[in-house]
Records
---
Amino acid sequence: MARLRLESPLDVRLTDSGLSVGEALAAFNAAQGGAGAIVSMLGKVRPDGDVKALELTHYKPLTLPGIQALADTARNRFSLTGAVVWHRIGVMVPGEAIVLVATAALHRRDAFAAADYLMDHLKSAAWLWKRERRADGWHWIEPRSQDHADLARWK
Amino acid sequence: MARLRLESPLDVRLTDSGLSVGEALAAFNAAQGGAGAIVSMLGKVRPDGDVKALELTHYKPLTLPGIQALADTARNRFSLTGAVVWHRIGVMVPGEAIVLVATAALHRRDAFAAADYLMDHLKSAAWLWKRERRADGWHWIEPRSQDHADLARWK
Amino acid sequence: MAVRVLFLGPLADLAGSAEREIPAPLDWLGLLDAVGPEVAGQLRDERVHIACAGRVLADKTTLTAGDGDEVALLPPVSGG
Amino acid sequence: MAVRVLFLGPLADLAGSAEREIPAPLDWLGLLDAVGPEVAGQLRDERVHIACAGRVLADKTTLTAGDGDEVALLPPVSGG
């Protein structure tokens, strides 16, 4: 295991191919020898009745730098020793991973809170647009008011 | 990856050899095709200055059934589609994994809350006794009042 | 030369394409005029942002894009 | 035959061993008597539990262990 090596304590990636969650977490664990707790959150495309596919569009000059800045903020706020934020872009099908967040800290409360924080902010603040393909074609996913409530938890 | 297969949606183990976190999470991910979110928490022995080793003692007729009952409660309370709870016993050194919890649910809030719940209850309610070896010998770790505060969050 | 205007997410459907070249210089009123009434209506929504040369404008009405600049029209991001 | 008494965690240090055989039948007062004053003092602490035949007793003073039973003395579990 852990053939993958993470060179930086903050490893942020946008990728248009599948996320290898086991490999990523094994590598992160190996790189975070000094952490007491590592929390991860893997988001997958839900097999949601009618949904055949999900497409994520990004805007390169903003999306990756925005997520990097978010990871950096989380690192400082929760005293992380490291973090992984990998986001899929492109077309994916139900069951495939969309996002992997992992956080390492001395104490588990910080690692939990940071993973939760990163997910809430990714969902609401990362420059990503999603559409779903259903039986009758593609549909853009609108902003949700729940996402604003999620963000307000951290104010 | 995913050479390991998980046969049951609730996979609870006590093990006296190392935890292969990447393999476990890859297998859990593969087994949880219908989940929208998978959260994991890996606890490791902190390289805490003076600590050379940590030993966990269990009582077989109680410890494993107790953790299984806890996992079952968490599954019902948070509508989990599955959970992994692996706990090390025996002697381990700083940097080694002590506990791996992973939870799968349709929605990430449930998966996060369930992993948090499992950790709080494992720390306080699982029949495990810990001692640390420092330069001057072994020392039993006392109960902590913080653990009671952690449990009170779920009342 | 010109300004390259990108229509992100659902704006691409409204605009009929994902990008267009528009003669430089390009300001806010010129943009509204060039993109047609439907996209212009969206651009007036306070939740729609504009980036120029890789930076999101704090006040999109101050847009001043020159030759070779890329202007991205950013609708609200999708929910979780 | 006898009752097998297990001393878990720090109780093993106090008892000087991890387990002992004590003649059956064994009840609460017999146990206090058999384990010596130091361990008996710990057993009176409400945070110390007793399991008999794999079950934790709700009221440890009701202990009634017969031939072949295993009695486990369970100090408070360690903190996180």
Note: Residues 10-152 of chain A form a domain with the Aldehyde Oxidoreductase; domain 3 fold (CATH 3.90.1170.40).
---
Amino acid sequence: MDRPLRLISTNPVDQLARTVEALLVVAAAPLAVEELAEATQDDPERIQTALSLLSDRYREGRSGIVLEKVAGGWAFRAAREAGEACGRLFEKPVQRGLSHAALETLAIVAYLGPCTRPDIARIRGVAADSAVAGLVERGLIAEAGRDDGAGGAIRYKTTPLFERVFGLESLSQLPRLDDLGGDVDTIRERLHEIAEKRPA
Amino acid sequence: MDRPLRLISTNPVDQLARTVEALLVVAAAPLAVEELAEATQDDPERIQTALSLLSDRYREGRSGIVLEKVAGGWAFRAAREAGEACGRLFEKPVQRGLSHAALETLAIVAYLGPCTRPDIARIRGVAADSAVAGLVERGLIAEAGRDDGAGGAIRYKTTPLFERVFGLESLSQLPRLDDLGGDVDTIRERLHEIAEKRPA
Amino acid sequence: MIVRELELDLDAFEGPFDLLLTLVLKDELDLSEIDVAGIVVAFVERLAERERLDLDACGEFLVLVAALLELKARGLFPEEEAELAELEPEEAAEELARRLAEYRRMKEAAAWLADRLASEGDRYFRLGPAPLAPKPERRLADQDPAQLAEVIRLLAAEPPTPSLAHMALQFPPVTQFVERFRALLRRRSRIDFDQELAGLSRVEQAVAFLALLDLRRNGEIAIEQAAPFAPIRISRTDVERDNSWTVRSA
């Protein structure tokens, strides 16, 4: 593997785990194993070991602080049993729920990867401008370059915050599209029936 | 003491401590005992007990997460032994250059001495607010009193960091501008004259 | 009840109905963002406040809302209508089925996201930096003080004269017309401005007029005009003084 050489650490893993703990408690976003290795100047394999030590200590039911694998990295969150208490003190990232339009738009961006407003409008059959603007405002999607260079429409992708809010390790945790839309075949048959009856 | 009545909790203190842990890991600012009592709907005395339990668990040398009492309440911080790793995490890569707007603003402040945002805007022909704010944030310029007493606009001067970044022992080491008249007043006058000629 | 004054309070628009129509027609408001059902509800609510059914208002409202709906429908399928029309019925059905299937899947994906959001409702995490986190250090590379002097010099440089190239006007030099008039007046003692310059562009005529003023200032010519908009006559000032010159050169 192509990885920069690191000095073989003589630190015991529990000391490394303490350093990882410290990094996770001050970080503003989930930290990937590579980022942790970079900051601790230690080996990714040892970081993994430290993380499994910590996962055991900071787990639901045992601790108020829970370590989770989310949005491509590792992060602390509050235990679920403290949800009510947290709700009294903090706003949720998505406090007021999401409209149908917003959820559909979010689903399209999450599944199709970077796509433009016209792309979204084509699938939904209605313009997506205000839904897109609302999702950008909430930080759930963000601009990701333009379609074919400088002049094209702006493309949007989901953010790490989206994965955190929905508790996803990565986008690959979304259900497979093939498993969705069970009544699609029925619709297809009906449409073909109608087409046969129509005079060409 | 005037305090709203609370139900006497039958929860053991260690469960309360877990909830307090959870609140502290989510908080973006230190939490006061009263806030913790509010969120947990528990008694401030019991919160104090929970906090001393936690202080013992999250202490320097024992854990990478350290609970600290600061002005305004309680908050988690990284253990000192993790200071170096945290430094590496938070150290952003070297920023190569300054924008043209920032350079112009910096040059005006460096050559003309303390001047206000309206001064800078007049000379540059465009508003200087964001350029000034950016330079203040980077620590390259700083406030230096007000124009003619208390009511006037804030004046800005360059900082020692500015001198360090530009490799100057003092402002007198700035490259000479003999071609523009050399002394500050002549240069200032000339800049104002040119600014007026510029099409609006 | 005046339909045009119907007050609307929609997600994308707040104000009277006629303002909404105006904005839509001026393309300043995207009709696809407008909830037409919301307009209908607003109208029906207003209608219900009345004791008698206002048939005139109903008629006017129907016409306006029908027009809005047609505009909206067209806006939503700008090219697709044409695309689908070119297909055989079987192909069109397949294309529609494909699109419906795609939308159907996204709708279910959206429902999955909604469920997920509800089930993850008790997950709380910190947004942004920790209270006692170290402040990120923004390091600036070493800079060259010469660039400060450079930008000050740029600020002190005379602004360039605005270019008129983009105006696509070709200005012939004034001297060209000065010479032309002198040549004409060498052959004739008197010329008619409009006649001589007929067929030239407005810009050229303007420059020619400048040339005249130039010659007049030098005392080389006299200009007469009997009345405003009357023909401008130009004569050599030395005609009276030196008639022989005219004769000789004629």
Note: Residues 89-119 of chain C form the longest helix (31 residues).
